[in-house]
Hints:
Layout: H1 2-23, H2 26-29, H3 36-39, H4 52-73, E1 74-85, E2 90-101, H5 106-116, E3 133-139, E4 142-147, H6 157-168, E5 176-181, E6 184-185, H7 207-218, E7 223-233, E8 240-250, H8 254-264, E9 283-289, E10 299-304, H9 316-329, E11 337-343, E12 349-350, E13 373-382, E14 388-396, H10 402-412, E15 420-421, E16 434-438, E17 441-446, H11 448-456, H12 460-472, E18 482-487, E19 494-495, E20 498-499, E21 504-505
Parallel strand pairs: 4-5, 10-11, 17-18
Antiparallel strand pairs: 1-2, 3-4, 5-6, 7-8, 9-10, 11-12, 13-14, 13-15, 16-17, 18-21, 19-20
Helix pairs in contact: 5-6, 8-9
Amino acid sequence: MKRLFIVLTTVIVIAILAILYRIYPIDDIYGQEIPPDIEDNRLDVKAKRPDKSKSNKESDSDEDNQSLSDEDTMVSSDVNLYFLDEDESEFIIEQRRLVYASDELEALHVINNLIHGPKSTALKGVINKATRVIGLEKNEDLIVLDLSSEFLESEDLLLARVSIVNSLTDLENIKYVRIYVDGTELTSDGTKDGVTLGLLSKYPNNLEEIISIDSKHMQKPDLREIAYELYFVDCQGMYLLPEVRDITVISNQYARTIVEELIKGPSSPNRGLYPIFPKGVQLLDIKLVSGDSDENDDGLELYFSKEFKQMGEGSSNELTTLGSLVYSLTRLPNVGWIKIYYANDKGEYIDSPIGNMSLSERLIKEDFNDLLGRRIKIYFSDKNIKRLKPQYRAINKKELGVARKILDELAFGPVGDVDFIEVIPEKVPVDRIKVTMNGTMAVVDLPLEFYEIQSKSDKGIISLYAIANSLTDPINTENIEKVLFLMDGKQVDRYDDMVIADPFVRNPALIED
Length: 513
C-alpha cells in the first residue's frame, strides 16, 4: 500500500506540472517572452511609453488654451490710412484692420503702417520709409508723436504731416496731433527758424485746398491763430495738466501771448484745471536770448510785476507756477530754457529766491520732471441716486496702474460739490478692493461689506456703474472695455438687487451732461 501511494502521488505531481507547463511556459517565467498586456506592470511608472491618443488630446488642449490666452490679450480695430492719389491730386483712405496687444497704442500701429506704405499700387506713401517712431503718447484728445530725423527727408513735409494728422484724427476721440522730430517740435519747413505750427488738426483731402490753407498760414506773419497747450494745476496742486486753447499771435510774439494766456487762467474750470498765477500778476517785459553756440539753446528772460512774489513762499504753488511757465514756453521750437525776474518794492528787477527754488539759474524741463500729470475722469452718484456726475483728478503721467488709481480716487470720495454722493462707502477698506486685468476686462473684487452697505442704501447699481464707467472712460484708458465684479474673490450671480453675473460695459446714458 505504501508503494502504491508513492506511485499515485508521483503521477499526480507529474500531471500537475504538465498542466502548469502548458499554462505558463518556462520562457515566460524567466522573462524571455513578456506579453504586451503585462509589460507596463513590470516597468517603472516613469518609464511608461506615452499613450499617443491621450498625449495628442492634451497637446491640442494646451494649444487651444494658449490660443485662447493670446486671443484674450489681442485686440483688433479698423482704421483709415491716408495715402496720396497723384492722378486725382488728393488723399484717399485705405482701410486697414490692425491686430495688436491690448496694452499697445492703436496710434503707434497706424504710424508704422503709414511709413510702410499703401497696399494699392494706385496710391503713394508720402513719409520717408526710413522714418522711425521714437516716442508716442496719447493724452485725452491729443497724440504727441516723436519721429526720427529721417522724417525730414520726406519728399514733401506738408504732405507727410497731412498723412499723419488725418490718419490719427480719424481715431476715436482724437482731435489734435503734435509732431516732434528728434525731440524738437516740427516747424513749417523742419528748420529751427521755421514757422511754429502748434497743435495740428484735420486737413482737407484735396491737394489744392491743403496748399491754400498752408499758404494763408505762412503769409500772415502779423496775425496767426494756432492751437496750443497751456499748463495749469490740478485740484490738489500736485500736477500740471494741459489745456488746448486757440490763441491769436500778433507779430510773432508767441512767448508773450502764451504767458498772457497763462495769467488769464484756465478757460474750463469745471474740467479739473486751476490757475497757477496769483491775482494781479503782469508780464512787464520779455527778451529772447540767443544761444552762444549750436549746442546751447535759445532761451527767454521773463520780467514780472511785484505780485509774482505772492505765488507762494515755500509751497507747492511755487513749483507748479515755475513748471507751468517752463513746459508751456519750451514747447516753442527755439526755446530751451527760461529765466525769471520780478520787480521789488522799488521797481527794480531781481531774481532773489521766493521759496525753495533758486531763480538765479536758468530753468529747464528736467527741473520739473515729476510735475507732469494726466487727467482722469471718475464718476459719482447724484443726490437722487439716478445719474452719474463726473469729476476730474490727476495722476502722475508715468503711472502705469491707472485702474488702481481710479479705484483709489473713487474711494477718496467727491471733492467740493455737495451734490456728489460717494459710491465706495468710507467703511470699506481700500486695501480690500482688488483689481486685475484679463485682456480688455478689468476684474474688480469688492468685499461683502460693499454689497451689504450699498444694498441697504439703494446705491448698489449706481455704484457699480460709477466704477464701471470710471474704468472704461476713454479719457482714462483705451485698454478696458468691460468690468467684471467679484465678491470676496468669488464670482456670484447677484446680491440682493445687484446682478453681477456678467461683465458691465460703459453706460453713457447714465451720465449727467
